Amino acid sequence: MLEANNTTAELPAIPGKRYFTIGEVSELCGVKPHVLRYWEQEFPQLKPVKRRGNRRYYQRQDVLMIRQIRSLLYEQGFTIGGARQQLSGEKSKEDSQRSQQIIRQLRVELEEVLQLLKR
């Protein structure tokens, strides 16, 4: 059952804190705590820090990831599996772009070294 009573545009701004409790994240993302715990099992990208008594502490990137998952499921109509695949595909694209950027930078540096050696 979908619990999408807020759209992403209506979600509150994320405060400038380092860690958020599950209750705070629930309010920031418009998702109940039990749903957040379930999503942790379904989405490997979602790994909150666990401390004393197995308490969860989410970081800003976790909150952004939860909002993205929420959007995929509730607004774009993806299934859990489809959302998981979409997120892993985006990660692969980011990794590919990052790798290409590193290769370009290495090439530039190697060409500079080659010019120094030719002198």
Distance between the termini: 70 Å
How helical, in percent, are the residues? 55-70%
Any idea of the CATH class? Mainly Alpha
Q: What's the tally of helices?
A: 4
**Class computed from helices, strands and strand pairing:** mainly alpha
Instruction: Provide the spatial order of strands within the biggest beta sheet.
Output: 1-2
| Tally of separate domains | 1
What is the number of beta strands?
Answer: 2
Strand content: 5-15%
Profile the largest sheet. 2 strands, antiparallel
User: Mean of the pLDDT scores?
Assistant: 86
CATH architecture assignment name: Orthogonal Bundle
Backbone CA Rg: 20 Å
Assign an overall shape: elongated
SSE ordering: HHEEHH
Which residues form runs of ≥5 with pLDDT under 50? 1-6
Fill in the CATH topology: Multidrug-efflux Transporter Regulator, Chain: A, Domain 2
What does this protein structure show overall?
The protein is mostly helical and 119 residues long. The chain has a single domain, classed as Multidrug-efflux Transporter Regulator, Chain: A, Domain 2, CATH 1.10.1660.10. The protein has four helices and two strands, in the order H-H-E-E-H-H. It has helices at 22-29, 33-42, 60-75, 80-118; strands spanning 49-51, 55-57. It has a two-stranded antiparallel ribbon with strand order 1-2. Strand 1 and strand 2 (55-57) form a beta hairpin. The N and C termini lie far apart (70 Å). The model is unreliable at 1-6 (pLDDT under 50).
